[in-house]
Each structure stands twice: as C-alpha cells, then as structure tokens.
Amino acid sequence: QVELVESGGGLVQAGGSLRLSCVASGNDVRDHPMAWYRQAAGKEHELVASISSGGKAALYGESVKGRATIFRDNVKNMITLEMNNMKIEDTAVYYCNCAWLNLWGKGTQVTVFS
To answer: Is 90 exposed, middle or buried (0-12, 13-18, 19+ CB in 10 A)?
Structure first.
C-alpha cells in the first residue's frame, strides 16, 4: 500500500523552530517533485514549499519565504521541511504531497503558541 507518512508536528513556541518529515512507503517517489502544503482552520490549502525530484530546485510560499527550507533524501525516500521564526499564523495541519502520484499524507498538526 502506497502512503506518505508525516511526523514532527506538535506545539511550537512563537519564534521557535520546526522540523517536519515525510516518508514515502510502498512507492518510490524519488523521481517526482514533492511538496508540503498546510491548511489552517477555515482556510484553503496553501503551498508551503516544493522541491524538484533531484532536490536542486525549491519553491516557497510567500508567507514562509526566508523562514523555510525543504530538502530531500532520495535514499531514504524522505522529504523534510524546516521552519524557523515560527509565527502564530503558521498554525495549521501540514500535509506532504506527491502530485504526480496523486498522494497526500494524513497530515500533522502544528500549533504555534505565544
């Protein structure tokens, strides 16, 4: 069974840092671009960051630009998102996505508190 499994969410103090990981099991995603999205309560899905299959090109959403880094380990089939200077408005469920395979993870909740 193909799935994306996110981990690393939880409570983060404003100004702190976050590291989320996504592992693809049952399928090899190393040939495909991957992305992190998030959805805050009452809002639409928002692109946080995406990364090319080779990991050399990345794209960031405006709200996280300069605070986020996405990278991947194609040996481990893992995609990682790091964010710093966390803000209250970063509170959301964060999802891992492989658009090519139409795959979404179940999401991991991130809550930023002051």
So the answer is: buried
Neighbours of 16 (CB within 10 A): 13
Report how far apart, in Å, the C-alpha atoms of 61 and of each of 5, 24, 55, 65, 70 are.
22, 23, 17, 6, 11
Phi, psi of 40 (to 5 degrees): -85, 160
Helix/strand/coil for 90: helix
Q: Residues 50-104: pLDDT tens digits?
A: 999 999 999 999 999 999 999 999 999 999 999 999 999 999 999 999 999 899 9
Whether the Cβ atoms of residue 17 and residue 8 lie closer than 8 Å to each other: no
